[in-house]
Amino acid sequence: xxxxxxxxxxxxxxxxxxxxxxxxxxxxxxxxxxxxxxxxxxxxxxxxxxxxxxxxxxxxxxxxxxxxxxxxxxxxxxxxxxxxxxxxxxxxxxxxxxxxxxxxxxxx
Length: 108
Known about the structure:
The chain is an all-alpha fold. Helix content is 87%, strand content 0%.
């Protein structure tokens, strides 16, 4: 298990995790989950071809979890409508919190 397929899956996994951890918006997080789905499939194929059944089992479950993430962040009509209402005030709230934190932090 050290071929190009595994390297693609490993790099894709790191990129997907970075997209989600960056917290740069709902759409980017959804794309991170799509990438996680793609690399889960890649890991499943790799595991099947190299008889690594634990990798296959783990990524089959992760594929389901990540597909749920795609649903939550990109496909759910209810969640999209909620976020459309939240987004206009989100930046204002973030600025207020940053200002509050600056006021609370001790002078350097």
